[in-house]
Amino acid sequence: MAEIATVARPYAQAVFEACGDDIAGAQGWLNGLAQIVADSDLLRLASNPKVGSTQVFEVIQGALGGALPTRGVNFLRTVIANGRLAALPEVARQFRALADRVSEITEAVVYTPFPLSVQQLSDLQPALERHFKCKLKLEQKPDASLIGGVRVVAGDEVLDTSVKARLQHMKTVLTSA
After folding, report:
1. For the whole model, what pTM was predicted?
2. Is the model more confident about 177 or about 93?
3. Among the residues of the chain, which ranges form H helices?
4. CA 38, 80, 100: angle at the middle one, nearest 5?
5. Phi and psi (nearest 5°) for 115?
6. Which residues make Cβ contacts (< 8 Å) with residue 148, sequence separation at least 6?
7. If you ran DSSP here, which 8-state letter would residue 177 be given?
8. Which of residues 48, 77, 100 is at a domain's end?
9. Taking the CB of the first residue and of the last residue of the chain, which one, N or C, has fewer CB atoms within 10 A?
10. How distant is the alpha carbon of residue 86 from its chain centre?
11. b/e per residue 34-52 (b: at least 16 CB within 10 A)
């Protein structure tokens, strides 16, 4: 996973710098490309030595439905030529992170042992924003292993108030004495 992130970083940065004020537009076509490339059949087609880069480009552009802007066309041709199609979903994720940083919003993943309602999540958001000292865009993911409480990952910071973490801490304290 770290290797894909490392490969994707310069691509995401280049698209971000090239898009200028059209961050939303670039995000749109980049998300579209990432969704198309997430299909394993397409990646298999692209890795077939009998299929040329022009054919791969035409298949992706046809699947996209709409026309790509010139920057999008150049970007896609570069990614195909460098054999980096598999990194496109990560490029889109890193681009979103760059765009959020500019708008001073941080993506945060809230792990809970059971799904929270929209109201519960919105009630939790102000406390999390005070803790992390920034505006957050929350995404919820279930993790039954937590038993209770929540685990929040925002950027490289983690807030873990789960029962699992508390039990692990108690175990560490008891075994270290």
Report:
1. 0.63
2. 93
3. 2-19, 23-37, 40-47, 53-64, 70-81, 88-102, 118-132, 163-176
4. 60
5. -65, 135
6. 113, 162, 163
7. -
8. 100
9. C
10. 14
11. bebbeeeebeebbeeeeee
Q: What angle do CA 113, 115, 118 make, to 5 degrees?
A: 140
For Cα atoms 40, 115, 148, give the angle at the middle one, nearest 5 degrees: 115
How does strand 135-142 pair with strand 105-112? parallel
Stated length of the chain: 177
Residues 74, 28 share a domain: yes
Tokens of 171: 């175990």
* Shared-domain flag, residues 121 and 168: yes
Range of the domain at 90: 2-100
Distance in angstroms (rounded) separating the CA atoms of residues 127 and 133: 10
pLDDT in tens, 18-76: 988 888 889 999 999 999 999 889 899 999 999 999 999 999 998 988 788 999 999 99
| Residue 23: CATH number of its domain | 1.10.520.20
pLDDT in tens, 128-170: 999 988 889 899 999 989 889 999 998 778 999 999 989 999 9
For residue 154, give both structure tokens. 């925002």
Maximum Cα–Cα distance for the chain, whole Å?
65
User: At 103, is the pLDDT very low, low, confident or very high (cuts 50, 70, 90)?
Assistant: confident
